[in-house]
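Tokens help. One example:
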Amino acid sequence: MQELFHNLPGVIYEYIIRKDGSRSFTYISENCIDILGLKAEELQKDSSLFRQILLEDDRTAFEESLSASHEGDKAWNWEGRISVNGSVRWIETRSNPVASTEGIKRKGIIIDITERKLLEQEQVLQYQSVVENRVKEQIRKNEILFTQLFNNIPMAVVMLDAVGKVELVNAGFSKIFGFELAELKGKNLNDFIVPTELQNEGMDLNNVISAQGIIQVETFRKRKTGERVDVLLYGMPILSEGNVLGIYGVYVDVTSHRMMEEELKVRNAELDNFVYKVSHDLRAPLSSILGLVNLSRLPGNTDDLAEYIKIIGDKVEALDHFIGDVLSHSKNLKLDVKYDNVDVKSILLKTIEDLSYLEGAKDVEFDISSEVDCFYSDPWRISEIFRNLVSNAIKYRARGVHKPKVTIKIVPDSNWVKIAFSDNGIGIAKQNLNHIFEMFYRATEQSDGSGIGLYIVKNAVEKLEGRIRAESQVDMGTTFYIELPNRIKESESVQP
């Protein structure tokens, strides 16, 4: 915004007369050197320099006009002459009072009106047409600059009239909110983009009309589709001699930043839980192993050491599985997605073979049906999804009268591949079903796994931009429904 002020054909300033009588410029735009012949830092350091460049004949009128405006606490407009490097210039200064507890505070603009004054003098009438053409050209350039800035600024900008009706919207506004100017022209903007629950918010653009100040608020609005969009809203009045001619509203879309903040909160919570759980699940088996080692060293201990070794082996094996799951989770988070042709059935058969060492694996019957001929996805993540699902199906298999069975159906559907992974195992209670994809959640006391298997599955599916859900009944079994996009087009685009 300061860069915009510096490029305006006038000096923007803020001036204060404090209660103790001291005076100073609290802000003055850097282009004052072009108009006043003084640097901004000089004027801010010593405001009396401005009075020194006034022509002596105009100083009294200047002081009287300024004092009168302070006494009435009203808008101020003054014209006079200054001396800049030996030449005389005419300037016009306008300001408006601003509420302040420190003293009398004003914001205003100083404009070089030398050319206008010269035009008013008869001795320069022969140059009038030249000057007028120059002014017209400058106006045309300013209009072009304004139009380009308004239309091309990478934010949503709307201009309202003095009663709050839409005059203009830029391309950024249409992109964010979905409305074109033809839909909004002459209408109340709030009727289109302010959600019902915020109608009485009180921090909208219309308040700028009465406040005659700049507002900034973080809020949310709605798109044409009804979708919520989080925004930073800036409202700025367009003033002329103390009158509001219109309002600028600028909306900055911060939806992605808000989502990132929420995601960061979730990830931080998961990290805290992860650190606690990892330290616990690493120490527990190590403590058991250390206890068995100490027992074996006790004098007179006649226990079968081979049994100790077996228990230690089981603990080490469980520890190894847990570490493998942690590494798999870490790899899934960090590894870029790489698309390739996936032979789903081959991956499934290899996964089943690799997990055949698990207790009860030989008792489980696998029925695999695949109708997919060409499926492009990330082979490693597909393998991780099946590894965890197959492992769970074996661990929580049917017992007793039911023969453990896993049915896997894979079918193509438009640009998607749908997978139904069903078992007839112990099932999951209804109250636990909504939590099974959470980190370290164990849905049954029978669980002896790491508790992050299904969490890894869900994260892998999300990395592939797919969807997953589960249905289950206790003692009847569980079915996971997975839908994954077939990335054959993406894979073709990277082919040499």
Summary: The chain has four domains: 2-120, 153-253, 255-334, 336-496. The mean pLDDT is 80. The first strand starts at residue 11 and ends at 18. The CA atoms of residues 121 and 158 lie 41 Å apart.
